Amino acid sequence: MLVKFRDSASAESVARAEQGAGAELVRKVGGAGARLLHSRGKDTAALVQEFSERDDVLYAEPNFVIRPSSLPNDTYFSELWGLRNTGYTSGAGPGTQGADIAAEPAWDVSTGSRDVVVAVVDTGVDYNHPDLTANMWSAPAPFTVQIGGQTIRCEAGTHGFNAITRTCDPMDDHSHGTHVAGTIGAGGNNGVGVVGVNQTASMMGLKFLAADGSGTLADALDALDFAIQAKQAFAAIGGANVRVLSNSWGWSGQPSQALLDQINRAGENDMLFVAGAGNEGSDNNVVPFYPASYDAPNVVSVAATDNRDALAYFSNYGAGRVHLAAPGVFILSTIVGGSYDWFSGTSMATPHVSGAAALVLSRCPLGTAALKDNLLGNVDQVPSLSGVTTTGGRLNVSEALLACADRGPLSSLTLSAASVTGTKSSVGTVTLAAPAPSTGATVYLSSSNTAAATVPSYVKVAAGATSKIFTVATKSVSAPTKVEVTATYQSHARRAELVVAPPVLNGLSLSPSTVTGLCQSSALSVTLNAKAPAGGVLINLTNDNPAASVPGSVTIPAGATSATITVTASPVGAKTVGSVTARPADANFGTTAHSRTLTVMPNGVKNLVMDAPANTVTGPATVLMTMTLACPAPAGGQLVLLSTSRAAVARPVGSDGNPINSVAVGAGQTQATFRVQAYDVAAPTSATINATANGITKSLALKVN
Fold first, then answer.
1. For a tag site, which of 115, 263, 374, 636 has the least CB within 10 Å?
2. Exactly one of 248, 293, 347, 398 is catalytic; which is it?
3. Contact (Cβ atoms closer than 8 angstroms) between residue 507 and residue 532
4. What average pLDDT does range 403-425 have in this prediction?
5. pLDDT, tens only, 255-285
6. What is the number of other CB atoms lying within 10 angstroms of the CB of residue 338?
């Protein structure tokens, strides 16, 4: 159990409490006043309850057994996609170009520094690994630390601390910590193995996890305390400038006040505490995962993403608890014995962030609060992380570094649009740090994928000017394609990422949208927001109007923006309404469905006219009316019903002068003529004559004088 007594507790009362608990082991742990107590006769739960009820105890909690956050590995992945992802395939499947931390452009600014120390709090580090040995921290001189009341002397040239054996030898006997160290700072340009986020680094090994991967909270506290004391011991010469603590371990459930105290103490000593969010695939807002879930100002909590920028299936998340994500699936790095292997877990995501913090510090003199803000404020926004992390983004070390570092003679390269639809353009701007000389300045340009986007080979910044614009022309693509545009001036490069998007379906029309279901059709058109790529774009069509005949799909040809087909309608006895819906068969061309209403009408009366000028007659008189159907009458003809609003004024009559209430339209014909008899009236009066077919009526008012 870990217990911390209040400052007011006397030494006598502390001794009595420990004696009453049957303590057989009592020692100080960490540097914040916690004590480790082990009882001969009481279990942990009983001890915690007993001491928690004492007025002179600030807190009592279990000495948790902690395990690392790694998952089983897979050996298919053969590239460091987390640093630069060009679409490589890993055990998780094909990757997405640009789904990485952008280490390559960051290296244009800095490749790291020996002056910034990253402490790997883990299973230790194989400091003899050929890819790590040059980047290990070494004590510049002998020094001593006080750990749990014990004085420990560390010789010059030692590389950290083993909290289990209480020695200054953090040799790894597991591989987890060595794997973490490789991602932070495996040597670069040394012709060996892999490279870390920092090609040049200084890593301190702090071992508290044993060969079986487990460890105790008490040992973790002591490991952290060593980092603080070592930094203080060499403060005068900066010989152990520990600025980042990398923590790929933790547990779910109950927090530890003792650990929080130690994290806060690390923060007071200007140390960023980077921690893995955990691998339960759960919400840390619901079940916290410690230490990542501590609400301490120097804590950064890290989720894991795969090579497609998706949140890893195992990764914990939580908008209120997890800050950002980093690559953590099938990550290749160093292991003990000079070898390499692939591990997965938020344990692998964490060192990407720890390494990024060190790389930023190699060029930017930031305090811990500003360093945290820098990392969280310069992420790449990723849809899969929206709402499940505080920033909604994945680490971008290049943006973080460029946000605070001197950019050299070429200040920036920007694009007016970071994403454009293929065949449309984006405007690039190169900006120099100082006005161009009298001969001007030539800035060379290149595109990483000329099949998707092209740029001029160079632009000339006029004498005395500091910037120049250019056009990025794009081509039609069938899937989102990331293109890296590079500008180079005086051997200094700046890069900007452009996403070329495929066209999307943005329109569906029916002309006309109302047709008669015997002789009329409608033109259905689907429209893209840009030209279709090679192979065209297949649009699926669905229809719920039983009277309309709609094909199951239509293809917009390559190079075209639209396609039109004919929708035919069947005869109906009554008005029939339904919808036609268009949706791209491939989600790359949009996921939004477009619908339009199609109305099919029965063959009704379209028009009704008479031969009387101004529809006016003087009674008594007979006038002729002509009725027109929307479509030719079917076989057997079509009967049209006739009626009048005022039979005493005017009414339809037959050739014999007798009243009629219908007229027949011959098969294949659209018109029929009938007589209307107007009677003698005492004063001008109107009567409305109606012609109705299939419930569709046309009316005409006849004025009788």
1. 636
2. 347
3. no
4. 86
5. 999 999 999 999 999 999 999 999 999 999 9
6. 16
